[in-house]
Design goal:
Blueprint: H1 3-8, H2 12-19, E1 22-24, E2 29-31, E3 33-40, E4 45-51, E5 57-62
Antiparallel strand pairs: 1-2, 3-4, 4-5
This protein binds zinc ion.
């Protein structure tokens, strides 16, 4: 499945939660990711972007269990 379609198959509520709960190595906290790019590895969706607080590059793997 195309990665954007995979991402959009997740409920909007969960997507918002994922975007708003990314660990930043600089802030050492859960932050909101901005300038998000939806990337992928062979199985999962990977969100890549920047910390909304400090601009540090952050990424989050979204495990696709379904
Ligand atoms: Zn940060």
């Amino acid at each position: 499945m195309e990665v954007n379609r995979k991402w959009l198959s997740i409920t909007e509520q969960t997507r918002k939660m994922l975007i708003g709960n990314v660990c930043c190595g600089q802030c050492l906290d859960a932050v909101t990711i901005k300038d998000v790019i939806i990337a992928s590895d062979p199985i999962d969706v990977v969100l890549e972007g920047k910390c909304a607080d400090c601009g540090h590059p952050v990424a989050r793997v979204v495990e696709m269990n379904e």
